[in-house]
Write the structure tokens for this entry.
Amino acid sequence: AGGAAGGVGGARVVRLTSPPTDFIFIKDAISYRDGIFLFRNLTQLSGTVSFDRRRLLHAMRMSRNPILLPDCFYHVYNRGNNGETLFREARNYSYFLTLYKRHADPLLELHAYCLMGNHFHLLIRARALAVMDALRCRTDEGLRRLFIAYAMAFNSTYDRTGSLFEKPFHRKPLRNERQVLAVARYIHRNPIHHGF
């Protein structure tokens, strides 16, 4: 991938001219917008490093709050703050999915989901880099907007204040088709696991 690098406030800025299929430092990215990745603590940069998908995904799993890499599958999950209930009524479930379609679906394909009383699981695939460039935002921006919109509506409806979700939400990159299918089975069997 071709690219250019510069510096902003001690961080490194990299603009990619093609998808980051040979770019090993994605794990250090702290922001993505308009094809630009902002990196923290990156001392060396090469636009021609050899790409090792396994190493990259492992590094992203080790990162506390990595960006969602374009064209990759993820298991996203979270629960209510301090185990608090997220969905009190049937309408809460449908409203959460409505907000997903509005805020997250343009950036993240939803392949499987399970919404439980105090937690949820999503199997998603981040859309292509070109889609994010067109929408001018980073991959996980849709989820951030979803969680904020749902929390605001939930707090207003139930006369509640404060954080509704644990932060940050959990995201686990899936390396191959076997892992994707395993997570899909896990999500669909989650209600059984919890006695429903």
